[in-house]
Write a structure and sequence with these properties.
Uridine Diphospho-n-acetylenolpyruvylglucosamine Reductase, domain 3, 216 residues, alpha+beta
Length: 216
Amino acid sequence: MEYNDELWGRHRRAVHARCESMRQATRDQVGLSLAQKVPCSAPSQLLGLNQVVEIDRDRFIASVEPNVTMEALVQLTKIEGLIPTVIAPSRATTVADAFATATFGSSSFQFGTFDCAVLSLEAVLPDGQYVMAKLGDGDDADRLFEILGAPDSPALITLLEIALTPAWGYVEMTYWPVSSVSGARLRMEPKGPNSLILDRAAVDESTDFVDSVMFD
């Protein structure tokens, strides 16, 4: 899914409209207090910001609007042979909600929570100012990341750049039966090179994801 002028043009027009709307609200001294009570993902529903704008196969990055669901994101990235490094468990979760709530996925042991998969953000502040922040691009950008990611943020996230990883057609799975949480933790600890195969760790450099289920 390469660069598409139409998709990017539609996105920029939507962002511009929201900037103007929030500036007008500020000028009228109306809307700022309301915006502070609305989660960052809610106002974007009014704009229909629900498109995957671009998938860059060379950089392994997807440019995604905030109301795109996890199901839609995975479906489109898989066409390109890629998937997000972290996938929220619920297919209906939007990328904005997954970012704001630091959602876990089965690959979180390796890549962290979903917010760790977000490489950059663009947003509109309550006064209508357009801002963009890249993860790790200085203290100011990191603080802006924290502000935009807060569930009660008054800002409107309009685009997220999400890290991708290759999607394989098949996976090799190994089941390790355990009888306790401490046993599961022990199974995941690194072992020495001379360990018996029965004592081998369930996680090593070749492991891509880990799921665990414990029944009473």
